[in-house]
Fold these 2 entries.
Entry 1:
Amino acid sequence: MRRGTVHALVGENGAGKSTLMKILYGMQKPDEGTISVNGEPAVFHNPGDAIDRGIGMVHQHFMLADYLTVLENVVLGSEKLHGIGDKARQKIREISDAYGLGVRPDVLVEDLGVADRQRVEILKVLYRGARILILDEPTAVLVPQEVDALFDNLRELKAEGLTVIFISHKLGEVLSVADDITVIRRGTTVGSADPKTVTTKQLAELMVGSELPSPETRESTVTEVPMLTVDGLRLTATDPDGVVRAVLDGVSFTIHKGEVLGIAGVEGNGQSELVEAVMGMRVLDTGTVTLDGDDISRTPTRRRREAGIGVVPEDRHRHGLLLEAPLWENRILGHVSEKPNSKGAFLDLKAARADTERIVREYDVRTPGIEVTAASLSGGNQQKLIVGREMSHQPKLLIAAHPTRGVDVGAQAQIWDQIREARREGLAVLLISADLDELIGLSDTLRVMYRGRLVADADPASITPEELGSAMTGAATGHLEHPADSAPEDEAR
Amino acid sequence: MKKFDKERVLLGLAAPLLAIVAAFLVTALVLAATGKEPFSAFGIMFDYGVKSDSQVYIINKATTYYLAGLAVAIGFRMNLFNIGVDGQYRLAAFFAAALGGALTLPGFLQIPLIIITAMIVGAMWAGIAGVLKVTRGVSEVVATIMLNMIATAIIGYLLQPGRLGHLDSAGTKVSTTPLPESARFFDFPTQPDPVWGFLIVAVLAGVAYWFTLSRTRFGFDLRTVGQSGSAAEASGVNVKRMVVTSMLISGAMAGLIGMPTLLNDSYEYSGDFPVGIGFTGIAIALLGRNHPVGIALGALLWGFLERGTGKLEFEGYDKEIVGVIQGVIVLCVVIAYEVVRRYGLKRQQRQVGEKLAAQARNSDNQEVSA
């Protein structure tokens, strides 16, 4: 890795990227091999060692305290460097200006958007004197415009002689920002590539040895029969300050049999609440939810799931799995009252185990067996198990929240195929995703969610990720037409 | 796949063994520090503990402790800490004794009536904490501790002559009216003392506990809540109802704790009815890893330690030493389980990784050779 470059690390999930990063950041110890920093061999026992050697990590999930200011967040844990007062504030301003981060030290983190929080994370690392930055999937939570801004920041950092290690699944982004690319597969380096000459397709082939899958759906299978109708949904929640706010307001839509409805939106604009409302985990203030002609607005979650709602949750560790339970128990989770998991009030362990074996086989879950805990599988394989489980109960409606997040290219293609397949057989899908290509490629209809409302709709056949991105920030509403000329967009930049 | 299972069993046994060995080492140090020779003390405890009258004593004690362990374990499986088992069983035993003393029915009616009364009282008392938790967000730990105190006060108030109490002929002891002969539970006629017949009920309770948790939908839901409340909710479990239900069951089980003593031994509730068994139950549930067989072993160990100390006292040792052993065991157990659990998880993750890598290499080789 050369100084003053952006070095991208790509590979399938479970290929060993995260493990490698953990070793570099001192969170895990290598069995063999050495690490050299600036030519000197280095051994890291804990993240502190790594920080001392000038290595800093920006995690995928931000580690910030909402109710503290940016300044407080930055100095937290390194009060010894520049104190906690004006000197620290001064230093933050200096760093912010030097790299064009635009961070204001006295704002509450709570009030910052995702992109700003990420810049605070980067600043936090720089403040501790890092010369090598590890960014773990930094673009997963950003809209295209924000991604561009982030890349500008990275170029700034690079120009100042810092080194950036960039981990991403999105090959297009990797090509646009990286100077060098290393591809790893099954724990070893399988090649490196020059971003100037390589194409995304070649890169993907290096990663998996197969063609880059495309989320595009070929033929429309949308019917006229409504499967899920949501009408005038309103949901309020009390925030930590005790103020009641509407997290969903006036949300209405219909998904027909064989239709995929995609919801675009920056995370935290009510998508999670919408999923929970449809699943029955939240009590609606007003509005109705109708599934296949039956009003299920007041039906408890279990009955809704029995009635044919399948869920691929947004956070599979929190909502989709029992991490310390074996795979076959995870196969029962969410469908304990259905065949083959139980007969009457009793579990049918034999049938559940046998069916888990089937899911593992048919959905290509890579595992040595069904007695291992879910935690021992890689993210992609966990997801395949969840998708397999939900598809095994012939759902009428599938709620898929970020179905391919953190999933490798191979598994992604599989999951997309399965959704398409089921859609052909009349499945209705509510798709929520931060991956705009996935949304545009899979959906038959697109809606944009902003601050708890559906503010815009678009035709996936003609919309571009950029146009969708601007609606996600609230800049555009109504029906998004493909603009005749791109003048307004230029102005915005 | 069998291999994984065997290792899991080994890991499961490693923790309690490790803990007990560590506890004895620490105790030996404590004994040595007080100027006593530690190993002869262990020798005395062991010799005395395996005598036949000691065996009967231990089994009878363990019957009570086993029920206490189960009551606590039900909460633990749900991630609920029912510290109130203590108050629940005392209140339950008191009311059951009062009712039993007031009635004279045939045994086949009276005994079940007493047992059911105890279970209902225990369940109601625990249920208060459950309802408070789901409606007002009161921690069950705080609520049950307070309920223990209230239970003590209620019993103290009612256990007086003229209320539910009854002064014995010698005029020295206040108790509930003794149960009639017909309400006594059967004994196994062992020598030198009988083994309490309530042992059967304890075994049945253990079987019911195992079957419910591992073989029924309800048990699966309960364990799901214990492992991940959020996943349980998403999977369709009504978590609030589950909290109340499991507190009720835990309390009903707690209601059984006083029954062996009441129906097989004391036949009345008085000031010297055993106290503090709810807390012993916490230690035993921890020791037994909430597993029905583990809890049984923990209960027997506890009984053995108590029996052994009685003897130590006569041999010039301080009887407090057993308190030290017990405390250290619990502490060691908690630490050892966490260490072994983390080690097991990591180890499995690594093994899965290695196996998959091996599989992948094999398939690569095949591709190459093909």
Entry 2:
Amino acid sequence: MNKYPSNNKPILEIKNLKKSFGNNHVLKGFNLKLFEGENLVVMGKSGSGKSVMIKCLVGLMEADSGVIRIKENDITVLGQAELDLLRTEIGFLFQGSALYDSMTVRENLEFPLRRHKKKLKMEEDTDTLVVEALDNVGLKEAIDLMPVELSGGMKRRVALARALILKPTIILYDEPTTGLDPITAKEIIQLMRGIQEKYGTSSLIITHDVDCARVISNRIILLVDGINYAEGSYEELIRSEDVNVKAFFKQ
Amino acid sequence: MSKAANQKLKLGIFVMLSTLLLVSALYFIGNRQNLFGKNIKLHALFYNVNGLQLGNNVRFSGIDVGTVSKIAMNNDTVIRVEMSIRESIQTHIKKNAVATIGSDGLVGNMIINILPREGITMPVVSGDTIETYSRIGTDDLLTTLNVTNENAALLTADLLKITTEIVEGKGTLGMLITDSLLADDLRQTIVQLKRSSVAANQTLAELNAYFKEVRQSESVANLLLTDSVSGEKMKRIVSNLEFSSDEMVEITAGMSQVIDDIKESDGALNYLTNDKDLVRNIDSTMINIKESTRRFNENMEALKQNFLFRGYFRKLERQQKRDEKKQTREDRN
Amino acid sequence: MATSLNLISRTITFFEEIGDITLFAIRYFRAILMPPFEFKELLRQCYILGYRSILLVGVTGFILGLVFTLQSRPTLMEFGAESWMPSMVSISIVREIGPVITALICAGKIGSGIGAELGSMRVTEQIDAMEVSGTNPFKYLVVTRITAATLMLPLLIVFGDAIALFGSALVENLKGGVSFTLYFNKVFEALSFSDVIPATIKSFFFGFAIGLVGCYKGYYCKKGTAGVGEASNMAVVYTSMLLFVIDFIAVFVTDIFFEV
């Protein structure tokens, strides 16, 4: 694993991203490049703007200024239809799984397909796709359960299956291990690695869980005060003499 | 999938049921308002509809048979009311039926009452105009009464003139008495007065009977004497009329007696002429007649003032003027 | 001083909220006219909002008719006007009490339900997840719910009115020995189109208001579980207020158009 995967252009790029809520300047010029096949971890304390950054990335929030480029498309200027199409390239694992409570696991997984299956010209049967996705996370037997009947870890897996169902090339993880016990967290991390190996996806992971970062990261960006404070591999950062960096990794 | 189908079924049943409820409610309401059933149209002309409104009920002998469907001014004074009547009731309403406006219940909704009248006539057909109350028979009665009254006044004036002459001793008393022409004149006048008094009495009796009838048949009472106050007043006026008329008859009888006395006692001419008492008697009798005629007139005037009859008297006046003109023209010829 | 400032800021917030809700309504009308249409979800919402409320509306309506008749009976009997019972009850229920009570019940059930559901979906990022999945959550969640509420409420109100009249007829039948046929004959004699039609039109607006406010409060729910509770609570409060405002306007308009 090379430190800076230098193979040509980044698949995802953020330049000088700024976002504020009233007088609260959350992001003050954040930069990021995600290369193909890479697992990039963005770390930072709660409220440091990680979630805001990732939401700007998929167009759930509008940035005040800055450029966000995904596969050569500037998402800030895209129309709704084009944005929707681009979003099929991105899987998004939400912090609290965000499974639709009123739907069964099957319906949850079918949901992204209902608009995109034709557009993406997916040949496979909807059922086949759903079963395959569930098989990937090892939860085939839960297909007709409701989300309330699932444990936290199972929910996270189903959510992961849902994020993967359109076979995206980029996966965004928003705090994939929060709220889970360490063992389940480890299982999820293993799953993430397995998926990355199987499909060759690029991942952007947001977390404040150092263990998670250590296991999965190729590269880590430390987000402090709305800017990239430090950048490097886990080993590099853990050896850093900087006070802030040290404080972060000590936990 | 079967779950979704089940939901659809339940939803479908619910939607159909509720829509059916609404539609049938609307249908039944419309049915009640005779919007969907077959109807005939009847018209009636009124001078005053007393706040009748569209949609007010129309009753035939007390049964709801339809609603008021149109109210429009025909001309300055006449209002045409169109009624929507259930077709099933058509055969029962005869052409001589009478429409009147009355009020109904505590709240005072106005209604139209259609009342059957005696006599055999054809049933109405759609578009017919039926009579309304204000045009029924009272006209004739009142005409007679008025004429009688005027006659009485006229005759009394004649009598008065004669008695005045007697009292003033115009010419000689002897001349008065011996002048059989004059005496005949006097007698004639008195006979006429008597006759007209009897006529007046008769008319009053008729009027009385009529009012009694009014009181008996409540439905008609409603329409004429809408409020009991004016009904009472009418009754009083009529009884007054009756009273003064009786008086007149009595007095006329007295007069007649006097005249007869004069004629029969041929030899007692001197006695008569000298008997101041008799003359005074005649005189006071005449004054009595005058008085009672005046009262009769007053009552008549009151009757005229009563709003129910006002229109009628006005019409009468116009008629009279016309007659007078005709008369003078004929006289000239 | 502090209180007056507070009052001013509250007033401003109030008007801002009204403006927001209006914009939300405009957005609804725009969204409903443009494809894609979420028919399946609309049907599902009609089932949830409409069918699932039948029992509640039915029971309340029945009790309403029952109680209303029982309470009015002594007074009417005093005036010897028992025969007016059907007309009085039917006109009050059809014109006013039925729609308003049913709408308030539905504001409590449907409005708070929508507020809580959308609120929790917002808080747990389900709405974001939908957006990312290429489904317009406004169309999928809001448009379907408002439309379903607008369509279902008139039906529920008709249903509730019918049950209430049935309850009233039952009392008259048991206590006054009036047959159902006679009772309903009297009812239809008393009712006119100007009683039923304005009430039905009004109930569409009631449904729209319930859906609109519930969705608005839920869709813009504040973060956290407290936010969800507030959203559902405020949905009921605002809806109830709005219902009375609509009712007032409706009566006003009805007066102009139906009383010649």
